[in-house]
Protein 1
Amino acid sequence: MELAEQKQELRKTVRAQARALDPAYQKFASEAICRNLMAHPDYQKAGVVLAFVGTKLEVDTEPLLRGVWSDGKTLCVPRCREGHRMDLCVIRSYDDLEKGAYGILEPKAGCPLVSAAEIGFAVIPCVSFDRRGGRLGQGGGYYDRFLDDLTCHTFLVCRERLVVDRVPCEAHDRRCTYLVTENGVFSPEV
């Protein structure tokens, strides 16, 4: 089986596990992940934070988004565009969001753009990851194309119960600086 097929099979397996998670655990894990992110020194120093609006199967980032606004930082979230690329858009409230590509909440047209160089703290979504930092994304390559543009540390978030032993990685797959679960913030194992 080719790597792409292995990744697709793993996505199916992990998505089924995510759908089966107890809602109380999902809520606890998401809140703990957001607390772990906001306690990190890189977050404390950052003026501009990149995050995402979690879908039903992803980490619920609402506590983080509200924390960024409460802390007086600039929050930007991605908006998908052609060519599997993303624009980084400043949002000041949930009113700045609408359903976009793939039914995901993303910034409305007209939200100010920021460059990757302006980001001081980046939170990256995934379906799953492994302890070595292998990231299993949704399969569109949006973040793999984008991660090379960031100069700040990147924080990959996943609930502990969805972490896998090994993510099959291809040459174009990018790794993040830190792995974050409800149990803490970790450097990838070497």
Protein 2
Amino acid sequence: MIRFFDILISLFGLVILSPLLFIFLIIGLFDTGSPIYIQKRIGKNLKIFNLIKFRTMKVGTKSKSTHLVNKSNITKMGNFFRKYKIDELPQLINVLVGHMSLVGPRPCLINQKKLISERKKRKIFNAKPGITGLAQLKGINMKKPLLLSKIDLKMIKKKINLINYFKYILLTILMILK
């Protein structure tokens, strides 16, 4: 049932937001010359997939966790895109094709060894990664791998049923709007 809503919501979001996505694409083109960023991430069952984002950093910046990136590498528009989570919108394509869900643990980078290890211990990779989840709502990011994996496990153990699925989506939207 969740997959049905992933497809429905991501398709609806891509169609409804297409004029804005086009505008953000043009803005990104002027900002960096290369508005789309494809990054290798680890998905369900440790399968690597290409995560799609709007570029927020200068072209050529090494692929690593946001908290490890020199702030000078983030573009002016990149700061704006990050603040309002606009850079995440292209991930609706990842949801549509089935690499991700709207709700689940954030997919980690292939070079985040400590986080990968902590998630393996807790079998987090048995779940499909998501755009949002409990850790994002609590403000926990990938610089705290142990805490992040524990919160991911808590979310997974609660079960991502339809009630929690829509709750996490609604709370994320409200958090962005604040």
